[in-house]
Design brief:
It is a single chain. This protein is mainly alpha-helical. The protein has 3 domains: 68 residues, no CATH class; 84 residues, no CATH class; 151 residues, no CATH class. Helices cover 70% and strands 4% of the residues. It has 11 helices and 4 strands, in the order αααααββαααββααα. It has a two-stranded antiparallel sheet. Strands 3-4 form a two-stranded antiparallel sheet. Helix 1 packs across helix 4 and helix 9 packs antiparallel against helix 10. The longest helix has 46 residues. It starts with a helix and ends with a helix.
């Protein structure tokens, strides 16, 4: 077989989902290309094949034509993929919090193993559990799709209106809230410059006492100002740009800041406080903030992904209409 054609067919095979019909499909494409090459150029060689292959279409586009009737996960299940993943992840998340608080590991039959983790490990463990839960639900729906039997499944009643959410997240900023945010941020900057901290234990006329050590007060106060400043800049950009990319950039940069804070902690940052374990409280708050920002980041990815999918589908329909 000619090298150009062999390479082209191999690329197409990577995108084909119907494993049982893959060989038959590739042979059909091969025959079409060879026949077209001979009709247009009279002979089949590397040069003529290259020109025909270039006009035939990208490997992915060609494979999509043969994948239209082949479903890995049935469309009736796709709408519930993230719903069941979300339910499973909430259960997983709650068990992880229990493990964090009681500092123990345990097994929940049949497949949940929750290791003993601290707050820093939890920040990496929770995203991994989401991937696991998504994969588990995806595999379950795959076998349900391939099964010839009718399987009754409980369907969650809640529904996420992604279009409404996208419109709300991409709304233009308002002047008055922006001014209030600017004033509030300026006040926080003044407080930091005045007291070198934003985390107070007590405030008196003589001064203020922070719940953090001096070095930790400056480090974590600056991190907090950076987080709030990023949100303020993103809100300001929405006066001119309402794209979801603004939200994605904001949450992504905030996650980056939190990652720096986590990876470069100050040693023994908290002062001693009677009757309270401030370290545990701080870790729970940090996990909650990271989780919220990660969810916000995922929302932006889903909205942008849906937009790209709908645009691609629309273009595909327009192309079919032109062919008709």
């Amino acid at each position: 077989m000619h090298k150009q054609l062999k390479k082209y067919l191999e690329e197409i095979s990577h995108y084909l989902t119907a494993a049982s019909e893959k060989k038959e499909i590739l042979n059909e494409i091969k025959s079409h290309i060879l026949e077209k090459t001979e009709q247009e150029f009279g002979k089949v060689n590397e040069e003529s094949l290259e020109r025909v292959i270039d006009s035939y279409g990208s490997p992915r586009k060609v494979a999509e034509k043969y994948n239209e009737d082949t479903e890995i996960i049935s469309p009736v299940y796709k709408g519930y993929l993230f719903r069941y993943t979300g339910i499973l992840f909430v259960f997983h998340f709650c068990l992880s919090v229990v493990s964090l608080i009681f500092k123990t590991s345990f097994l929940v039959f049949p497949f949940f193993y929750i290791p003993k983790i601290d707050s820093l490990q939890a920040l990496f463990y929770l995203p991994m559990t989401f991937v696991f839960d998504l994969g588990f639900v995806g595999i379950l729906f795959y076998f349900m799709t391939q099964s010839q039997k009718e399987i009754r499944f409980p369907w969650p009643k809640f529904k996420i209106d992604w279009n409404k959410m996208a419109q709300k997240r991409q709304a233009r900023s308002s002047v008055i809230p922006f001014i209030l945010m600017l004033v509030g941020y300026a006040v926080l900057v003044w407080i930091y410059l005045r007291f070198n901290t934003l985390f107070f234990k007590t405030i008196t006329l003589q001064g203020a006492e922070s719940i953090l050590t001096p070095a930790a007060s400056q480090w974590y106060s600056l991190a907090l100002l950076a987080l709030l400043g990023t949100g303020l800049i993103a809100y300001g950009l929405k006066f001119s740009f309402t794209s979801e990319w603004v939200n994605l950039s904001r949450s992504g940069f905030q996650l980056f800041i939190l990652g720096i804070v986590i990876n470069k902690p100050v040693e023994n940052p908290l002062i001693r406080f009677p009757y309270l374990d401030l370290t545990l409280i701080a870790n729970i708050i940090l996990i909650a903030v990271v989780t919220l920002k990660a969810v916000d980041f995922l929302k932006s990815l889903i909205i942008l992904g849906r937009k790209a999918f709908l645009k691609n589908t629309s273009q595909k329909h327009e192309s079919l209409e032109r062919l008709k």
